[in-house]
Amino acid sequence: MRENADRFEGLAETYAVHRPGYPLAAFRDLADACAADSRIAVDIGAGPGTSTRALRDALGPDWRVIAVEPGHDMRRVLGRSFRDAPDVQVIDGAAEKIPLPDASAGLAVACTAFHWFDRAAFFAEAARVLAPGGVLGLVRNRRKPLPVIAAFDAYVAENSVDVLDYPARERTKEPTVREMAALPGFGSARSQTYGWRDTRDCRGLVDLYLTRSTVWALVRRVGLERVMRDLGALCAAHADGPVEIAYDTSVKSAIRR
Fold this sequence. Notes:
Elements: H1 2-5, H2 12-18, H3 24-32, E1 40-44, H4 50-59, E2 64-68, H5 72-81, E3 88-91, E4 105-111, H6 119-129, E5 130-143, H7 147-159, H8 166-171, H9 177-181, E6 186-200, H10 202-209, H11 213-222, H12 224-238, E7 243-256
Parallel strand pairs: 1-2, 1-4, 2-3, 4-5
Antiparallel strand pairs: 5-7, 6-7
Helix pairs in contact: 3-4, 7-12, 10-12, 11-12
């Protein structure tokens, strides 16, 4: 994961402002499923703190949140966001080597970060840090199809030299319930989906796409001005006014035996 963290250097400020959040109900339901005594929640690959904030707000004062992030730029913004929050601790660490004691956490989540991890090493670490009865949750926001979203995605896929098979990459962003159920040391795997909506104007939609590492790989190749111009033209062609984006937040979870 540390190697992949370098892809996001310089993006933390933009990421913090323009990335969408997560429905609080998703984290509350994960916490409700926790049968462990520990009230420590670990946010793995926390980025600039978007998921950490939602996790903290959902769980309330009984829980302590530990945000684990390997990227220096992301961790800088993350630490600044929670410098006055004594119930949130920010630490340098990777999904494959979480700097926490064995069986110390009641909840471990990874939000829109799982596809950057070494899966086997991450699942082994999650099993190690979770106490029996603790919950592992993998959370991902998925946009429902819209003409303008399809046009943006097609543009990125067509012009990307970073990802040769864009649709295949999208399919790797979360495990199946069957995979979760087969994890050593885990059981009671399940999948839940939470629907919500976000409205953005064309510039807001372009800014959202500029938080994606695949888009920044394209920016570095052809320049920011061209990418913004191309995406702006696509938005003007496919959207008449503000764009209402419908999201499904998918949560795959399993309980530590």
